[in-house]
Amino acid sequence: MENLTNTLFSSFEADEVTFFADLILPIPVPRLFTYRVPREMAEVLKIGARVIVPFGKNNGRVFTAVVARLHNSPPTNYQARYITEVLDEYPLVTGYQLELFRWMAEYYMCCVGEVMNIALPSGLKISSQSKVQINPDFDYPELLTEFEDTLLTELKKQQALSYDELVRLAGAGTNIPALIKSLVGKKAIIVFEEVREKYIPKMVRKVRLNRTYEEKEQLLALLNRLEKLPKQQEVVMRYLSHVPVQMNASLNQKGLDKTILNQDDTVSQSSLTTLIKNAVFETFELIQPRFSDNAPPQAEIKLTDAQREASQQIMAQFERQNIVLLHGITGSGKTEVYIDLIQQAVGSGSQVLYLLPEIALTTQIVVRLQRVFGDKMGIYHSKFSDNERVEVWKGVVSGQYQFVVGVRSAVFLPFDNLGLIIVDEEHETSYKQHDPAPRYHARDVAIMLAHWQQAKVLLGSATPSLETYHQAKQGRYGLVELFRRFGDATLPNILLIDTKVEKRQKTMKNEFSSALLTALEANMERREQSILFQNRRGYSPYMQCEDCDWTAECPNCAVSLTYHQRAAELRCHYCGHKEEVPRICPVCGSTKVRTIGFGTEKLEDQLQIIFPKSKVLRMDLDTTRAKNAYQQIIQEFEGGEIDILVGTQMITKGLDFDNVSLVGIFDADRLIHFPDFRATERSFQMLTQVSGRAGRRAGRQGTVLIQTNNPQQTILQKIIENDYKGLFDEEIQERQNFNYPPFSRLIKLTVRHADKAVSQQAADRLAAELTDALGSSRILGPEQPLVERIRNLFLFDILIKIERDKVNVKAVKSYIQDRINDILTDKGLRQVSIVIDVDCL
Description:
Organism: Spirosoma utsteinense
Subunit structure: Component of the replication restart primosome.
Largest sheet: 7 strands, parallel
Structural class: alpha/beta
CATH class of the largest domain: Alpha Beta
Strand content: 15-25%
Number of strands: 34
Family: Belongs to the helicase family. PriA subfamily.
CATH architecture of the largest domain: 3-Layer(aba) Sandwich
Shape: globular
CATH topology of the largest domain: Rossmann fold
CATH superfamily of the largest domain: P-loop containing nucleotide triphosphate hydrolases
Protein name: Replication restart protein PriA
């Protein structure tokens, strides 16, 4: 590609022909934009490079764009603008990535700019912000109002203010555009566009001896000269203790991190400053990676016979199949098998991507992987800062990281030599992106990425998705099974607690059955740990008045507000709206306003009261917002500092604790009876996964207690028996009968508008047009979802079922898009928005 580009440019230069670039801009417009390439950029511009370009009326905004194509054909329907700046000497976006962007835009029915926008870490995109500063030529203060004069006084202190800063300073009620217009008209301020690249390399300041003193004679002379200045001599001696120049003079050029000397109590900082001023020492700066340069000791992975056999079977399957499913029960040691395969792939010179569904999982697994792979491994997830993610991105381009472990966004990294992709816990819904577009599934994108790079894909799970297991049973994927727990540990003993009986006998204490409380107490006496699972965060799902049945509801969404006791507030988990907790009912004035139901926060609070001497910790979205919160919680629990860990589904995903012998599960019925065709499958997956956290140490069987109102439910019996195949046989027949995945593809269209009638009108029209063309058997709805209003927009869902065989899916998607465009361009429906979710969950 580079040779082609150079040849193209050379011919252009010879003929003095202007050439152009088709660019991907990070905006939801279904097209590329053609820009003129300045002559001075001709030799450096390459496909996949980032550039800065103006966009919009009067070039009011700037964007980071990616070069998708180079040519010499000017656009026919508009005047091409010039590229402002080239950011990359070497492209940071590969040809494989550009192909991936195009495929995702087509498959997930979105714009290629939306794909690019979510693919590139924000640190690789330019920040463009309107700012204002005082006009240095302004000299007419009498023209200003009192408020404008106050504003300019503040502007003098700050030198420049952004639009958002102006809003905060002036107050939310101020018409900021009118204020700026007035000040510009009076020539008091200048509006400018501040452009900066967000990625800032981490610099380390170092110090080293002047090269003169690398010679032994000169160094001895310096030390003799400093005998009368003992503090300065001590600085030199401390430096030499870290950097033995007298033994190896070349070490001096690498220098010493200045902070080491600054933190040394025996070093006089003023003496160090004097030595630098007198040119004995010199300071310099180097770019330092944000990840450790020091690889941990290489640990050996010893596989059991069962693991070794599984690894060999996978490699044998890869000879015939590009995709293999590893179906291994919880605690069977799938991670060790993954490590063995990664070592083989890295050893052959290939790149490896290891996907995990949650950041919580990476905390434990990354430590294990680092012991084996050290600095060859990169880590990539959203809790990292922009700068850290950019360094991993650039590390993949440069070859520094041959192996990367990350969450779903890691599929966008610039790999160009993939040999293996591992998708751990492939059944997890966390792999699906819901907002914004593209609403992709990382497992499916990984499979396409591997196809283009001729890599192998290993899907791993104790409870595979029905779609994946069906593909394996049909022979489209390879299948390897691992049904023995690591170290001969046994699967836990699962017991059902009938809460209906306990409530009747009045043996329940708050949300806890007597059996669960007894088990928790016995577990603590044995100094063993417990995990309690409740898939609902907050203290209580809602507050209600006992006298008039008033319920605290979100003003923006059709949901009740969740009570959070620690924060002393009511909070909407959809839009983030917050309110103070009412003392009295706002409708009838009653003081009998009570919390109804329970979440993880309430369980944590009750446990502290029931077991005052125990150490209880909670792991949910509220307690893990900080960057290292996951790691801290897991380290404390792993270190035995915590007796009971309470959490949401975060604790179900692959965590491995030797000392956990008891798992308690609350509210199982709510999971099982959720109105969704996947409810049974997901209940089995979630309850089996969390049960698998118990008894992972050999010689001790764990116990799982499931609290339920109906112990006779078939799904619970399958969980007790760990009967995945029985579940699959029943569910796959139901799916086939009603034409649900894996026998069809699902596309959900969500129509949204602030006026319910308009939203319904648009949804009815869209559904009718689709039904006319595709048939009533393929179109369900429109129906209002469980939460019918979110952020003051009324929602209507249309579900489209397309058979996997004998249907031109591409043509169907094109037709759907045309009908959507008809709605969006209708004058009466222009404010309607339609969200397209392909392969919806």
